[in-house]
Amino acid sequence: MKSILVPVGSSKNAQSHLQYAVDFAGAFGAKVYVIQIYNVYTMSGTMIKVDEILERESLDFLNNHVSKVNTKNVEVIIKTFKGKLVDTIDLVSRDLDIDLILLEPRVNSKKKDVYLGKTSGKIIKQTNIPALIVPEGFVYKPINSILFALKSAVINKTDALEPLINLKNHFNATLNLLLVKTPFHAQKDFKIGDDLKSELTSIKETENATTFQGVLEHYKEFNPDMLCVVRRKRGFFTKMWEKNSILKKEFYVSNFPVLVLSGLK
To answer: Among 145, 153, 171, 126, which Cα is nearest to 211's?
Structure first.
């Protein structure tokens, strides 16, 4: 893991989130790209380009933001971009060869009942970049135990598990698999390939209506430092992916980060 992306908004948790990102990157010797994205506007009837003003203000904001964080020996690079959020995130991630994007649960949402705000939810839902959702105010600590929740162990994309395996190996963490048998499961969904099986510490099977409910029922048994789930078109958090924001009553994690991988199929 060499490059980590941290989009910055105006949340009260932004400084704490960036400090976590710096500490996390330090554990890997990775560099951190701190970015802010703004839209392009031109004032009608004038020669003033508002996007130039926004770029200058954005750079000033990011420089001030980073100055409040203990960057230690981590290389922190500041960049601003203009464009639409998701499209720009995708382009930036490819251009900068990003391995992981670190997200705050809520960026601009003031609603206390929201877990993922519209900005973070949109990035999770509409991109294929491996993402780590870090709870508000969370302080970095090494990852000793990971819970990997799946409703299908079928893996066609050989590199899809790389972020998870890299984290597991780097921290020498235990990796516990929770296989959730949902009402529409197929027998092949529970056939675990040798590549994944060789990385696992334990395997537990459970029957639940959704993967999400399986996690709620069993995660305390494993006491994980991180939960790993898969972003699928019709997978974990199926109901929640129908909209960009996610309410706490639907899913809420405050004790550990959540790693979201791209689809395995």
So the answer is: 153
* Three-class secondary structure of residue 106 per DSSP: coil
| C-alpha–C-alpha distance, residues 37 and 55, integer Å | 9
Quick one: pLDDT at residue 42? Answer: 53
Going by pLDDT thresholds of 50, 70 and 90, the confidence category of residue 239 is very low
The burial class, CB within 10 Å (0-12 / 13-18 / 19+), for 238 is middle
Strands 246-247 and 114-116 come out as antiparallel
Q: Which residue has the higher pLDDT, 13 or 130?
A: 130
DSSP label of 29: T
Averaged over 144-167, what is the pLDDT?
89
Q: Report whether 103 contacts 133 (CB < 8 A).
A: yes
Q: Which helix (H) or strand (E) is 18 found in, with range?
A: helix 14-28
Are the C-beta atoms of 135 and 257 separated by less than 8 Å? yes
Task: Confirm if 240 and 249 have CB atoms less than 8 A apart.
Answer: no
The Cα 117–Cα 240 span in angstroms is 12
Structure tokens given for 34: 């701190």
Look up residue 37 and give its amino acid. Answer: I
Alpha-carbon distance 137 to 19, whole Å?
Answer: 10
For residue range 180-214, what is the model confidence (pLDDT) as tens digits? 998 888 888 889 988 899 999 999 999 998 888 88
> In the prediction, which pLDDT does 126 show?
80
Contact status, residue 138 vs residue 23, Cβ threshold 8 Å: no
